[in-house]
Each structure stands twice: as C-alpha cells, then as structure tokens.
UniProtKB/TrEMBL annotation:
Motif ('HIGH' region): 31-41
Basic and acidic residues: bias regions: 185-206
Name of the protein described by the UniProt record: Cysteine--tRNA ligase
Matches recorded under InterPro entries: Cys-tRNA-ligase (IPR015803), Cys-tRNA-synt_Ia_DALR (IPR015273), Cys-tRNA/MSH_ligase (IPR024909), CysS_C (IPR056411), Rossmann-like_a/b/a_fold (IPR014729), tRNA-synt_1_cat_dom (IPR032678), tRNAsynth_Ia_anticodon-bd (IPR009080)
Gene label: cysS
EC number: 6.1.1.16
Primary site of residence: cytoplasm
EC primary class: ligase
Subcellular location: Cytoplasm
Length: 489
C-alpha cells in the first residue's frame, strides 16, 4: 500500500513517491536558539521524528536535516539586553552573555529536551553561522538572475525582489497585492515593501562578532536565506519533504521557497506542517509567555508519558494542553505497559526486575496500524489500533491462549517502537538509577567503616573517611538514625 501525505502547497493529500527510489531527504526547521525550549517546539520535532520512523519502518533510507538558527535579531537583542544597566538576571537569562554563548547554551537545552523525549538526532544538524559562504553564493545567484538587489538607501542590506518572481505567494495561496510589507527594514530602501532581507548590513549597535564580510558590505544573513542555503548543501536542489510548524508557512517558508526556486532549484516536493500546541486555545509561544517547558512536564510525568501526550494527536491538528492531559496519557501508557509486562511474565517468564533483551526486528505492526500511518500519519487511528491489540492480547491472556497473546505482544512492541514510545527512551533514566544504586552501596560501606572508627574513638580514621567522601563531592550529615549522604549540589 502506498503512503499518502497532505501537501500544504498543493493543499491535497497525495501519494508519496520519493525522488530517488528507496531514499528520502527530509528537512525541517529547527529552533531559533534564543530561549528555553517549550513543549510546542518539541511537539514539532516529535511529529517529524514519527514521520522519520514511519518512513524507515517502510524500508526507506532517510536523511534528516534540522537546522539551528544561531544568529538572529532576537538572539542579538537578548544578548544586548543582558549587558544593560537595568538588566535583572533570572533562571533563563544571565548577565553579560555574548550572543554566541547564549545561543549555544540554548542549543544544548534543545538537544537535551529532544534526547530525553526520544527525538532521534538528525543525520545532520547545521548551524546557520557555519554556512555564510553558501548563503553568499545563493545571494549572488539571485542578483545575477535579477531576483535580488542591494538596498536602495545604501544600508548594506540585500533584498529579494518579490515582484520579479511570479510564483511568490503560491505556497500559502496568497496574492502579492494582498500581502503586508516585510517589517525587517526601512521600506524606503526597497523596491516593494514586501521585499525581504537576504542580507542585513552591519549596524553600529551590532556586535563586531556578529558581522561577516560580504561583496555587499559587512553584515549578517536574513533568517529565511539560512534555511535555503543549508537545505541545498545537504539535500541538493531538489528534495522530498520540507517540514516545520504551521506558524512558519508565512513568511518563512514562502520566502525560503521563493529564494530557492528563483535561483533555479526545484526545492521541496512535499511541504508538511505540524499544528500548534496551544494553551487555553492560544498558541504556546515565548512572546505570549504561556509556555510550558519539557522540564516542567517531566516533573509531572515520565518521558514516555510526555512523548505520548505530545505525539498522540494528528500532526496537523492543534494540541491543547489541559491540566488532566498528562494523567490521561499516563493511563494509556500504563494500559500498554501492563499488558506487555503480563505477557512477558506469563509467556516468557520474564519478571519486572529481570534483565532481558528481545530481538524485535521481525516484529510487525498490525494492518490497521499500517494503513492508519500510511494515510498521512494518522496517529490517533494508529493508537486506536494499538490499544485494540492490547485488548485482544489481554483477552487471550485471560483465556490462557498464549499463542495469540504472544502475537499481540509482538505487534504492540512493533507499534510502540514505530511511534517512538518504546522504553529505550527511558534507558538514560535507568542508567542513572543503576549508577545511583552502585554509589549507594559504596558510600554505605564507607559510612559503616566510619561508624566503626567512631565507636573505637579513632577520630583520625573517621575524619579521613569524611574527607575522602567530601573530595568526591559527597556530603555526610549525622542524624539520630545514623549518617545520611547526598551529592553536593
Ligand atoms: N506552540 C507550538 N506548537 C507547535 N510547534 C511549534 C510551536 N511553537 C513553535 N513551533 C515550531 O517549532 C519549530 C522551531 O521554532 P522557532 O524556534 O522558530 O520558534 P518560534 O515559533 O519562534 O517559537 P516562539 O513563538 O515560542 O518564539 C518550528 O518548526 C515552529 O513552527
Ligand atoms: Zn527554515
């Protein structure tokens, strides 16, 4: 059966046929690393992680590229503010932080959130600042082809000429005349107020470190241009799927497409956009201030439960966070886990604390699951198929039909893996728990020695043990029920 995806550009669901048989090139827009990730960002990454996993499940070799926008107005503004006299530090923004330090710090926060929630790392994760040369080449091509020009007011900017590209507006089905101007520069320097910046001339207020030489004067790249240049470098001038959040369709994706197609590239064959995570109906967004971070959710639920919540809706629909959302997701995950644990125990004699590994590569998803996923990644229907299999398995276990139960268990494992809900994402947590347990045994032995030394009034020995532990970052506190230890914060 063929896979069908909704293509935002053509506004229809159509058969997916890769440009090169057996291979898929996927680019999706990553974060502008100007602040802490919120769960909306992670939902976008989970949606494209599920897409990747499904394409791989169907036998495709997928090259995934997700960029890091590490130079941008907002990053520079946040950094500049941190040097201001009335700046007040908080848990997210530190005083006197250079733009690149701030960007890299948040890039790592994003990476850690993705890792924790089972978003597999992309094949390539290019940073905008590492691709200035490619951006210059693209601007050059656009100027040569008559689609870009240096600012008329000598600001050092370079603009894309929207009137020179008749298909401008075709991604979002808009008529140029109905569009608003691009607010990125003084319209007096532009041929048309809708023209947008490919290159931004250096301003006296910009830090020297955020400025690169160019044929049009020193400056830095415009946001839209970054993605066009990076896609081409890693996936070529024609590739299969371009993704990102629905909020990026205009202007970002419209402009990316215009730049690349005006340069003569075929660009993306499919455009796929994930819906927004909302809170009380409003887009979760840094600028609105209604964000919930992955860390906050992980205080309330395990990574798999958070992943289930963020991945359960159809990727194109809006996902509203409600206080009871995580409890509902938790109950669903527990139903799945309860069945798998029972099946492992009854059929394979594996107990909850046994160490075991199971070869899953020949396990297959059910037909209902497969056709749901092939139909534009219909995850809600696929999850219904998964839970139906859990019910069938539980019924079989109750009736003592271990063969049917085993088949259901294998299918459930294959389906949870396909959705990235397998428990591998908790292995990080398990490894920490194992290390913690090992440390506990070692420290307890030291503390027992220390107690014996104290009982024998051998103070030198008792102090020496305390010093050894302190040097290892372990703080010992004596209490009525004996010594307690903790790691120094
Ligand atoms: N609330 C949300 N729900 C789903 N996806 C989102 C949400 N907010 C951002 N995204 C997506 O996350 C990816 C990275 O986004 P980017 O860094 O550009 O964030 P942003 O839209 O500027 O976020 P914010 O509005 O909070 O500043 C993009 O694909 C974007 O569409
Ligand atoms: Zn982009």
């Amino acid at each position: 059966m063929s896979i069908r995806f909704y293509d935002t550009k053509q506004a229809i669901t159509r058969d997916f046929v890769p440009l090169i048989e057996g291979k898929v090139g996927l680019y999706y827009c990553g974060a502008t690393v100007q602040g802490m990730p919120h769960v909306g960002h992670v939902r976008s990454a989970i949606a494209f992680d599920i897409l990747t996993r499904w394409l791989e499940n169907r036998g495709y070799e997928v090259t995934v590229v997700r960029n890091v926008t590490d130079i941008d107005d907002k990053i520079l503004e946040k950094s500049a503010a941190s040097f201001g006299e009335d700046f007040e530090e908080d848990e997210d923004y530190f005083a006197n932080e250079a733009w690149f330090a701030l960007a890299y710090r948040f890039e790592q926060e994003f990476a850690s959130a993705y890792d924790t929630l089972g978003v597999r790392r992309p094949t390539y994760e290019p940073r905008a600042t590492g691709h200035i040369t490619e951006m210059h080449q693209l601007i050059n091509t656009l100027i040569e082809r008559g689609h870009a020009y240096p600012a008329l007011d000598g600001s050092g900017d370079v603009y894309f000429d929207v009137r020179s590209f008749p298909a401008y507006g075709s991604l979002t089905h808009q008529n140029v005349d109905d569009m608003q101007g691009a607010p990125d520069a003084d319209p007096r320097g532009k041929r048309d107020p809708r023209d947008f910046a490919l290159w931004k001339g250096h301003k006296d207020t910009d830090p020297e470190t955020a400025s690169w030489p160019s044929p049009w004067g020193a400056g830095r790249p415009g946001w839209h241009l970054e993605c066009s240049a990076m896609v081409t470098k890693y996936l070529g001038t024609a590739f299969d799927i371009h993704g990102g959040g629905l909020d990026l369709r205009f202007p970002h994706h419209e402009n990316e497409m215009a730049q690349s197609m005006a340069a003569g590239h075929d660009f993306a064959n499919f455009w796929m956009h994930n819906g927004m995570v909302t809170y009380q109906g409003e887009k979760m967004s840094k600028s609105i201030g209604n964000t919930i971070s992955p860390a906050e959710m992980l205080e309330l639920a395990t990574p798999r439960v958070v992943r289930y919540f963020l991945g359960q809706a159809h990727y194109r629909s809006q996902l509203d966070y409600r206080p009871e959302s995580l409890a509902e997701a938790g109950a669903a995950v527990e139903r799945i886990d309860g069945f798998v644990a029972n099946a492992l125990a009854r059929i394979h004699g594996v107990g909850p604390n046994d160490d075991f590994s199971i070869d899953m590569h020949h396990f297959e998803v059910t037909e209902a699951f497969e056709s749901a996923m092939n139909d534009d990644l219909n995850v809600p229907q696929a999850l219904a198929a998964l839970h139906e299999t859990v019910r069938r398995g539980n019924t079989a276990l109750a009736a003592g039909d271990l063969e049917t139960a085993d088949e259901a268990m294998q299918q459930v494992m294959a389906m949870t893996y396909a959705l990235g809900l397998d428990d591998t994402i908790e292995q990080g947590g398990a490894a920490n728990a194992a290390q913690g347990a090992a440390l506990d045994v070692l420290v307890a032995a030291q503390l027992a020695d220390r107690a014996a030394a104290r009982a024998a009034k051998d103070w030198a020995r008792s102090d020496a043990i305390r010093d050894t532990l302190a040097a290892a970052g372990i703080v010992v506190e004596d209490s009525a029920d004996g010594a307690r230890w903790s790691l120094k914060a």
